[in-house]
Structures are given as C-alpha cells and as structure tokens.
C-alpha cells in the first residue's frame, strides 16, 4: 500500500493485490472471537473517535473482551 502513495508509481491490479484484497474482505466479514475476562488481570481500553463515529475495544492479555 505504501508504494501506491508515491508519485509516479503505476498501479497494476494483479494476483498479489487480489489475494490481499480477498484476505482483508475475509477478516472484515468474520466475527471477532471474544474471550472471557480473568478477574485478577488488568484491562486495557482502546478508544478512537472522529466527526463521523467512535469506537472502543476492551482487551486483557492481548485478547479482545468486548467491542
């Protein structure tokens, strides 16, 4: 993707690009697997917001607890 943002770079849609696109589609369309929290562990909250929306994710030990 970073190559495509450079000046004078011609974009050709090939097998590599198609495979990457299909993988991204698959990841975006599959449901996330939520883990059960452990009461003794710390939690981490990730937040993001813009003028169009907001989102948050609760994690523990690098596993998603909730979205």
Automatic annotation (TrEMBL):
Q: Which residues form the Reverse transcriptase/retrotransposon-derived protein RNase H-like domain?
A: 13-63
GO MF, one term, reads: RNA-directed DNA polymerase activity
> Which keywords does this Swiss-Prot/TrEMBL entry list?
Multifunctional enzyme, Nucleotidyltransferase, RNA-directed DNA polymerase, Transferase
**Record organism:** Tanacetum cinerariifolium (Dalmatian daisy)
Protein name per its UniProtKB record: Putative reverse transcriptase domain-containing protein
């Amino acid at each position: 993707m970073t190559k495509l943002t450079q000046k004078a770079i011609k974009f050709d849609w090939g097998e590599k690009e198609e495979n990457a696109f299909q993988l991204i589609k698959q990841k975006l369309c599959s449901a996330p697997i939520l883990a059960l929290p452990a009461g003794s562990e710390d939690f981490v909250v990730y937040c993001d917001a813009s003028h169009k929306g907001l989102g948050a994710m609760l994690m523990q030990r690098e596993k998603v607890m909730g979205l």
